[in-house]
Amino acid sequence: MSPFQCNHDGSCSKVRLCCIETEMTLTRKDVERIEKRGYTRAEFVVRSEDGFCELRNVDGHCYFYDPDTLLCTIYEDRPEGCRYYPVIYDMRKRRCVVDRDCPSRETMSRQEVRKVCNKVRKLVETLVREAKFHDGPC
Ligand code: SF4
Fold this sequence. Notes:
The chain is an alpha+beta fold.
């Protein structure tokens, strides 16, 4: 099977599902990298009920998603979690899963999922550690 192919042109369903009503969590490094582009964290970060820093949604989509072009406006500096999508971590089951909402999920080989999952696990460890020590605004 060929490597995972994201339909970056939005052809999966006219929208990039992963950027719609996003719940993408952010590490401190993600926030700092995006801030270097000239954004303030108050613009694009919110704290979730369970204590994680997340991307803000505006009009039902990620702050950085452009509904006209169907593209991410910070693609080169997008958060780590966005890079690993559609592999996500199911906190309840405590394991990686391939998001069922992604229409391209079938293009991912098991080998690819396993490789990305190792990175996702490390990311989750970082996110949990950072959330524990920060209970104020992100
Ligand atoms: S940062 Fe970019 S890739 Fe990530 S959810 Fe937002 S628009 Fe999508």
